[in-house]
Amino acid sequence: GYSFYGRYLTVPKPVTFKKFFDTKAATIKFEPSTISKLNTFLQISTFLGLVLVQTSSVAAQSPNLVNSCPMLLLEVSTLMTTLYSWYDYYTNYSKAVKGL
């Protein structure tokens, strides 16, 4: 949502459909923070972990793997880095977004 609005604000005037969707003329640059990169890794790991636990043959022998301590730790770590990443971008917006 906001990326479209930010793009609209930074496209050279007059804004046309062609200018707006021209991918060669970037007007905004998002620079990911270290915590957001870690967060992305943990989110993908959590998703893959849950899928693997549900679909593997090990799950048939031990159905509580989804609720296991390592899985819970991964989920809580993902939650914490997600919240911190949001806070980091919120407080350091001018460092993360260039062009506005």
Q: Could you walk me through the main structural features you see in this protein, from its secondary elements to its overall organization?
A:
There is one protein chain. The protein is mainly alpha-helical. Helices cover 67% and strands 4% of the residues. It has a two-stranded antiparallel ribbon with strand order 1-2. The protein is elongated. The protein starts with a helix and ends with a strand. 5% of the residues are buried. The mean pLDDT is 83.
For this entry, give a set of tags.
100 residues; mainly alpha; 2 strands; 4% strand
Shape: elongated
Q: What strand order characterises the main sheet?
A: 1-2
Please tell me how large the radius of gyration is. 20 Å
Largest sheet: 2 strands, antiparallel
The number of distinct helices, counting runs of at least 4 residues, comes to 6
Mean pLDDT: 83
Terminal CA distance: 15 Å
Can you describe this structure in just a few lines?
This protein is mainly alpha-helical and 100 residues long. It is 67% helix and 4% strand.
Compile the SSE list and pairings.
Elements: H1 2-10, H2 17-20, E1 29-30, H3 34-55, H4 57-61, H5 69-91, H6 93-96, E2 97-98
Antiparallel strand pairs: 1-2
